[in-house]
Amino acid sequence: MIDRTNGGSPPAHPQVFHTVPTAVIAEAEQRDRYPQQSELRELSAFFSSGQKRLEIAAALAQNADRIVAAGANRIFTGGSPMAYLERATDPIGLPGSGYYIGEDFLSAKARSKANLAQEPRSIDPTSGLMDWFKSLFAQGRPNAPSRFRTIDISKYGVVRMKRSMRDLDWFLRYTTYAIVAGDTNILSVNVRGLRGVIPEDVTLATVVALQEMQWKAAQYVDAEAKALVKRYFEVLITEYLVEKPNPRLRFGASKLHPGQPLPQSYYDSALPTPRLVIKPGLSETEKQEAIRAAYRQVFERDVTQIYGVALYDLESQVKNGQLSMKEFVRQLGCSRLYRREFYEPFTISRVIELACRHFLGRGLSCLEEFQTYFEVISEGGLPALVNALVDSQEYADYFGEETVPYLRKLGLEAQECRNWGPQLSLFRYSTPVRKVPQFVTTFAGQQRPLPNQHPYGVGNDPLEIQFGAIFPQETRHPKTQPAHFSTTSRRILIDSGLHNGRNGDRNGNTHWGRVPGTFGHPLLKLEPTHQPRRGNNAQGPYLDVARHSIEAVILGTYRQVFGRDVFDGQRQMVAETKLKGGEITLREFVRQLAKSRPFRRLYWENLYITKAIEYIHRRLLGRPTYSREELNRYYDLVAKQGFYGLVDALIDSPEYIEEFGEDTVPYERYLTPRGYAMRSPQGPLAWWKLRDNPDIAGDWMAAHTPRQPVKIRSTVDSVVASAPSARSAQIAMATATSQQPREMAQPASDQSTRTNQGAGSEQSPIVAGSSAPMSGSNAERPSASANDQKLPSSGTNPS
Amino acid sequence: MSLIKQVIDNSDEELRYPTPGELRVIRDFCKSGSDRIQIARNLQAKATDIVERGTRQFWKICPRTPSNSGDRRKTATAKRDMSWYIRLISYCLLAGNDQPLREIGLTGMKELYTNLGIPLTNIVQYLNCLKAEAMKQLDQADADEVIPYFDELIQEIALPGPPYFMNDGPGESIPV
């Protein structure tokens, strides 16, 4: 089992580029002030030039094909390069296409209408010729360097032609974006270093094509705009010619914090962050601003105005140069205010997390680091922690003596993937008031065994059949950290103990759990209605009371497949007749029921796909799905073959044939512990109790203490009456969930691999002992039709 | 995230040039640019006044509140938070949409107040007072621009969000 631990990664969308307004706002926001006059002037200039820039963009967009064609014709010979340009083929349904699928389904008429709306993109050959003719006499056309040779299309190959044309189109498109944005940032972020991935000879050709496009694009705009277009193209070409820049390295401070690379483009696209430093030569206002920034970093908000804690003598020392910024930050950390704000209200673990943010600008990175600082703070208190952080090698590397500490966010430096979730939320505004330590809980979560939930999501299994539900009610105990399931990890399933007559393995040991209510429930089997012939005499019908009538078998099948008794109108009379007549086997009967209209309506049409698969699986195979991997296979099947394919696959599966064969009514073989807890009369979900669904069933089970000692050996009757085996199974669950992950990773025996990986039966001798006598007596239990009513269908009934 | 950025992101997603419609949106945005800057300036000039009078109004409605308890620090903190919101609104004016408010301001604010034990109704009441005050202080045209952001702020805090994770485009998904 692969076990990757992490703190969850909320989808992080790094900044792709920035525009003038975003840059201004980010700058002002980071300094906690309104935009300054100069910034407003810049913005105002941006707005007033907007008209011009948009005109250019519109002109470029309109003549895009011609511009790209000009560039391509310059470098390619022997054919029409534009034939290789592929546009996004079918924009139908995308927003902005003028046609939205949600409104009506793709009727042929609507489709053709939308196609008509597209502009014809072929270029008039005569105008192309005219252009070419004109271009012969045009002024200012760039000269290609002498070593440039044109590329023959036929030799170049279709695939490479397509790529080249796509790239030329892309260059023009991004230039247009940059012109709209009024900022060349988008170009430098996306284009820089491209040359590093393109062979050298092609690079030269690309530059020639770009210059041609630059010249061509300038033809379509007026004189004033020409300079602007030229400038943007120049930025494009310059950035293109830059060698692939080295990734920026995050310093490795110790072996616990290895250095990590961050691609340069990520760094470029990050919002500009002011690095404030205090140096002797700075002006008074700049110094003042740096000091405010230090307050803001350490106290997370602007404290000077509100609390009136301007530490005047300290400040003046900083301004005089007697005190370095590092010492100033240290003094702030040791101040009474810091203690009151960030030490006294919190637990120690939280204090460490917050201090790490304030003084190092990041969250905790690993458990070892936390333990180090925990030791420091428990021995020396808060001042020792502050000193340790400020004196650390990392602080020296990043901030040194002069720089004010800042938050090292995503995009500013490489982040460790394992801590993204807590890391990003630690940088949020409301972080100080979170009472639960974020990192420590994550670290602790890594040490725990797998929670008893579906790998599909965090709290997605409130009812056992509802797993995959997408609306977790997580208002009270929100857990941002997902369980680290891989595709190979499986759910723990409790065995019902029924194994088609062969209880347990060969040694007579059964598994450690039992599904309550199914115990003692006999298998329904379709057996021949007449005794076999003996010699020539046909024997009469079976009159053995231990056998089930065919009617009982049919009703039992309905109950299993539909989860309840069906109404008369829903019965499949044709299939029943065939079954009674011996035309079809019971397996075929089950298949016909599953393919019937009522079943489809009940379990397929109203449900979303995960839930539908889960229901049908439980109905037909008698167990929940094991793992994400298995579910994925069903998704695939359903996508390709639909509902009927799924039913066929389940009923024809080797598992079905082995377990139920041709003549046994499917029964519930396994159950999730959560569903088990629900069915237990003392379970957390009993109807009269408050429903505070615990995160995992194991939580409840671990907390639950049985009121009476477990009976090691019990008779069948007492089991049926008071279900002590249910209790012993609870204990077994509790032991199983508190096992260390190391044990869970061990290869289990072949039985437990099939049934309940992670909690092998050999780990709970109590239950193994208790269920041994049951297995013997179970086989010889007489049939009792009253027991049929105990089919555990009520818990899973969807209606 | 400004309006322009949104347009570029959209068209980049679909591998096309900005459509004329989108360009028109940006053009309108640019045309109103100087007005917006002016409104932002006006708002900035009146911010302290709005907060001051809004607070007094709020205390009339809600006399028993920590900020009115005589603790000067608490009063100042409350005022700081409110002027912070007004500053965010001025950012929104410059960006042309509500993204700065959402990204900087609203994320986690509800949790913050809940954690601090401040009743959300009080905050809503307070913001309502500020809004009324802003309407009084600013002239009609300016107020028309500013009020929607106040409304959004109030709604965001007052209404319970959907109980699931929304993926609303770039940016961290926010549990609401």
Task: Describe the structure using short key phrases.
heterodimer; A: 799 residues; mainly alpha; Globin-like; serine acetyltransferase, domain 1; two-stranded parallel sheet; two-stranded antiparallel sheet; 36 helices; 6 strands; flat; disordered C terminus; B: 176 residues; two-stranded antiparallel ribbon; 8 helices; 2 strands; elongated
Spans of chain B of at least 5 consecutive residues whose pLDDT stays below 50 are 163-176
Measured distance between first and last alpha carbons of chain B: 20 Å
Shape of chain A: flat
Helix content of chain A: 40-55%
Unreliable runs of chain A, pLDDT <50, ≥5 residues? 100-106, 116-125, 458-463, 466-478, 503-513, 684-695, 708-799
The Cα radius of gyration of chain B reads 18 Å
Helix content of chain B: over 70%
Interface with most residues: A-B, 66 and 60 residues
Give the total of beta strands of chain A: 6
Mean pLDDT of chain A: 72
CATH superfamily of the domain at 17-87 and 140-259 in chain A: Phycocyanins
CATH-scheme architecture of chain B = Orthogonal Bundle
Choose one word for the global shape of chain B.
elongated
CATH class descriptor of chain B: Mainly Alpha
List how many beta strands of chain B DSSP finds: 2
Mean pLDDT of chain B: 82
Q: Give the spatial strand order of the biggest sheet of chain A.
A: 1-2
Strand line-up of the largest beta sheet of chain B: 1-2
Assigned CATH superfamily of chain B? Phycocyanins
Subcellular location (chain A): Cellular thylakoid membrane
Membrane topology (chain A): Peripheral membrane protein
Pfam families (chain A): PBS_linker_poly, Phycobilisome
Domain PBS-linker (chain A): 256-436, 525-696
Topology:
The complex is a heterodimer of chains A (799) and B (176).
Chain A: H1 20-30, H2 37-48, H3 50-62, H4 64-75, E1 76-77, H5 108-117, H6 125-137, E2 151-152, H7 153-156, H8 158-181, H9 185-191, H10 200-219, H11 223-241, E3 248-250, E4 260-262, H12 264-269, H13 284-299, H14 303-307, H15 312-320, H16 325-333, H17 336-343, H18 348-360, H19 367-390, H20 393-398, H21 420-426, H22 438-447, E5 494-495, H23 550-562, H24 573-580, H25 586-594, H26 597-605, H27 609-621, H28 628-651, H29 654-659, E6 670-671, H30 673-679, H31 697-703, H32 716-722, H33 724-737, H34 741-745, H35 750-755, H36 765-779
Parallel strand pairs in A: 1-2
Antiparallel strand pairs in A: 3-4, 5-6
Helix pairs in contact in A: 3-8, 4-8, 4-10, 8-9, 8-11, 10-11, 13-16, 16-19, 18-19, 24-25, 27-28, 30-31, 31-33, 33-36
Chain B: H1 3-13, H2 20-31, H3 33-61, H4 72-95, H5 99-106, H6 109-116, H7 120-137, H8 140-158, E1 165-166, E2 174-175
Antiparallel strand pairs in B: 1-2
